[in-house]
Structures are given as structure tokens and as C-alpha cells.
Amino acid sequence: MIDDCLVVEVRVTGDECPLAAATRATGARLEAESPLLRRDGNALLRFSAPADDDLAAALDADERIRYLHRSAGDGRDRYRCLSMHPCVVHDLIDAGFMAESLTYADGEGRFEGAVVGRDVLQGVMEAAGEAVGVTLERVYPLGPDSAEAAGRWDVTPPQEAALRAALAAGYFAVPKESTASEVAAELGISKSAFLERLRRGQGALFEQMLG
Predict the structure, then answer these.
(1) Domain ranges in the chain?
(2) Strand partners, 139
(3) 173 secondary structure, DSSP code
(4) Which of 2, 4, 21 lies closest to 12 in space, CA to CA?
(5) What does pTM read for this prediction?
(6) Nearest by Cα to 155 from 199, 185, 191
(7) 135-194 confidence digits (pLDDT tens)
(8) Are the CB atoms for 119 and 37 separated by under 8 Å?
């Protein structure tokens, strides 16, 4: 029996899935349930948003969406459809992330879910590190006081800036998409300063994750 069940929240930018694209084009905000993945790699989507004909038109015009159904009620539209385009959340689910709520606004996604055990969390982090524009926002134990326990990772602002810049630049990718010197130049600091902030930030994250 595994005792640890952790709530995980991630922010996703640069995702080209249909829901992100539709909110980017229209400025809408939608709430989605966890996708139901099919064996063929496509996904059944269920989501809702404030009544918005522009959003409905954008979704209907997307060739990656099939069988779009829209129902209205109480000022909100509820949608069901088949998506033929993979989303970043699929990679996280494959790594063990149990998605519970997904929010899209202005092309950005925020996913909340859970992982069972810290080994699974490490796998989800590795999957996030390999995806474009994925930032781990919060992790906290699931329990009766989970809402009160929620909080951001305890790293300094310079360390967070170094970590975010490195992730965005593909510094953690395999193979690397940028060098330490390039990320340091983007931040306007020296290479040695960047590497020190990165190491300290990673050390703080791993200590909080793994104790």
C-alpha cells in the first residue's frame, strides 16, 4: 500500500491542441473534464464555457475535431466531441498523472490532478520536462486539509526565473535545445550565475519533493 497521494497542478503554454487554440483565437475560458483516451490515440472531450457563438464557430471550424455537440443551459454551453490531435495532458497521463480538472484560457492550460507516490511524481516531472511549455506550479499532499496546505514551491524568485527560462528554452530537453550561455544571455546574467541559480533551485525542488 502506498501512503503518498499528491495533488499536482501544472501550467501549459504553447500547446496546439484544439481547446487551447480555440481559447487563444476567441479569448474564451473553458473548463474541461479529463479526456477519455481511445486506443487509436484520439480522445473524447467534455467541456463547458459561457455561451459564446465565436467559440462554438472556432471549434466547429477546426478540422481536428469531429462529432462536435453543443447544448445550452443556464448561460453556459456544454460540449462533447472527438479530438484527433494529441494534447500535452496525454503525455502526463501516460506518466501516471490522474487529471481531474483542466482549464483553458487565452491559449494557456492549467491542469489539476493527482499522482500516487513520489516515484510517479518524478516520472510526471520528467514527462513535463520533455514537453514544450509545461511548468509545475504546485504539489501538496491529498487530505482533508489539502486546500489549506496548497502552496508554491519554495524557491527564490531568481531561482524560479532561472528554472522557467531553462525549461522554456529547452535546456532540459534531450538533446539540449539551448546552452547555459544562451539561457544566461536571455536572463541578462553570467553563465556562472545562471548555473548556480539553477543548481540551487533544482536542489530546493528535489528536497521538497523527495524529503
Answers:
(1) 5-147, 153-210
(2) 8
(3) S
(4) 21
(5) 0.66
(6) 199
(7) 888 888 876 544 433 345 667 778 888 898 898 888 988 888 899 999 999 888 899 989
(8) no
